[in-house]
Amino acid sequence: MNIMQNVGIGSAINRVEGLQKVTGRARYAAEHPVPGLLYGVIVSGAIAKGRIVEIDEAAARAVPGVVEVLTHRNRPHIAWFDRSHRDMVAPPGSPFKALYDDKILFSGQPIALVLAESFETARYAASLVSATYETEPYNTDFEKAQSERFMPRKKRDSFHPPKSRGDAQAAYDTASVKVSAEYHLATEHHNPMEMHASTVIWEDDGTITVHDKTQGPQNVRDYLASVFGMSAKSVRVVNAFVGGAFGSGLRPQYQVYLAVMAARMLKRSVRVVMTRQQMFTHGHRPEALQSVQLGAEKDGQLTAILNSATTSTSRYENNMEDVVIWGLMNYACENASGEYAIAPVDTATSSDMRAPGAATGMTFFEMAMDEMAYAAGIDPLEFRLKNYSETDQMNGTPFTSKALREAYAAGAEAFGWSRRSASPRSMKEGKELVGWGVATGMWDAMFSKTSAKARLSANGHLEVSSAASDIGTGTYTVMAQTAAGALGLPVEQVTVRLGDSSLPIAPVEGGSWMAASVGAAVQQACDAVAEKLLKAATKLEASPLGKASLEDVRFSDGCIILREDTSRGVAITDVMRAAGMDTIEVEETASGGISGMISQMRKSRNTHSAVFVEVRVDEELGVVRVTRVVNAVAAGRIINPKTARSQILGGVVMGIGMALHEESMIDHRLGRFMNHNYAEYHVPVNADIGSIDVIFVDEPDPEVTPLGVKGLGEIGIVGTAGAVANAIYHATGRRVRSLPITIDKLLDSSIMP
Ligand code: MOS
């Protein structure tokens, strides 16, 4: 193996920013020291809907050290949000405007911002702010909201309406074997370690630098510039380190808006951090109801799919997701119909959360597929293979690649699926019922136009930069090793800059497109540097490379070397010195190319996975343990097997949380999420996780994106919860169709013999 393979794409190098993170040197949004900083603490409203009659802020203002109390009555004039001021991730509707007027739209809505010289003072003074309200009728009960389900004419840009084919109802009516089931998913909230936080640094010339917890610094910059009527040049947004997000940082949150409003009004630097409770007052994975009806021949051939779902949104924005398309795309079936709608409740608008739509819709579809396998008396894996489709059945297009068959095989082999005993409740060990379940996962392989700059210095140091984000996903590392590989440099000689709106244009980090997109941009920029280097080298007198072109040489070990004769080469630093070059700097934009755009119309681009799960269920207590998971993933080319595996591990853990733990509970008498803390909102902890085996099957795909990379941030969660639910059925013989599958639901369906 040569040096290039050790540093470049495909090598399992450690996280390049790991040391900074574990030593505490990496600063997160609320950790940047600023002299003369003011601290803002948000006061949350107490009612679900209505209006503020009176706010009493006198006691707060009387506390020494309090500088200002901002409310809707004294806020400065704002250029405001109209249609053109929405952030790029906003769904159709009218975005929430903090401290805009006296109207209350959801429980926990910010009603005041207390600013003081210390955080403790601000927090204490905030506790003294009181308000009286006039309440209006509201509904936070999603089941009741079903009567209001609708589909707005204006769709989200990212939304793909389901396309029906054949006559699903007629095929279902006459099917030999039928399954019909309704599923429910509880609301989930993103619970990253780092809460939403902004540190706004005020400069005397009126410009601001904002350290913000966001997945897209340029999205926040553009939002702030338009809302406050500032030029884009006078706003810089930095998110060099992000402590997790899961989608919660796709849209600018209200703390950044409040912090900037206060900084501009008081002409001072301001920090605002949400509390953990306030993290439950904005976006969340929508609550969902899904019904699936399947018809099949006696031999298990699917003949009918009817898949319909409703997800929750707010009254002021129409958030929508791709929930029902996945099963329609994935399986061979001549008659299939999909129906999707949203239903408004009086909460903040639901939002994207890791694999939005697919994590919900594919999970339930795969639970229905499991039910059909049992109904038809076929092994669940064999049933899926029987209905396997090489093409995208909903769109009638081929996939750029689909190595799902290989994923099923590799996963089944590693899991030992062939040793499964078919009947439910047939694999008992001690006091525990053992169950094995399988589910398929599917997500998009997207690409988003991205720019990157590469700058090579005469001492051989390479800096690559882009306004990309690393939300814990490995972007720093992916950029570093792609650059190192392209120019044959040790990765230690590469510096990555990202998370800064002043860097070359990049999209928000989301949809699993970042590695494929910024990776391609970095590769392109570094290739351009290589070309300039070679040109300079071949111009040198007595060049050992002669008139070599790029195809004739390779870059490795800091040198340009002739492929034909590896004894002939020249050090990059020597070339630059001899040519009198201090730096070579190139900025490139990866757009996916024209051929990419054309084939995008004719081909489907997706990742696939096969998830195998073992659960053990205590027969008397209903306690579920997920003891083993094998997730076999087909996601094109893997840039870094180590960070890639970590992405799938995280997705699987979140999938186990979806299956067993995560649930935001509303007390409808208050219209408020009540378990708004880490004690009562359950996410899996270490003791909940057994063995997780991640497999990447070989899936060469030069067509899907410029580097052949498909992305991994989201595929790991899709299907996992379904496989857990299916394993629980296999263990207990009880089908729980409501996630999370908590102990009470299992005991309620009396798993006891
Ligand atoms: Mo992801 S929900 O696109 O951050």
Provide structural commentary.
The protein is α+β, with helices and mostly antiparallel strands. 26% of the residues lie in helices and 24% in strands. The chain contains 19 helices and 31 strands. The chain binds dioxothiomolybdenum(VI) ion. Dioxothiomolybdenum(VI) ion (MOS) binds at residues 215, 247, 250, 352-354, 356, 510-511.
Unreliable spans are 1-5
The percentage of residues in β strands lies in 15-25%
End-to-end CA span: 59 Å
Determine Rg (CA atoms, Å). Answer: 27 Å
Oligomer state of the chains in this structure: single chain
Bound molecules: dioxothiomolybdenum(VI) ion
Give the tally of β-strands. Answer: 31
Rounded mean pLDDT is 95
Tally of individual helices: 19
Class based on secondary structure composition and strand pairing: alpha+beta
Q: Which keywords apply here?
A:
26% helix, globular, binds dioxothiomolybdenum(VI) ion, disordered N terminus, 5-stranded mixed beta sheet, alpha+beta, 7-stranded mixed beta sheet, 19 helices, 31 strands, 753 residues
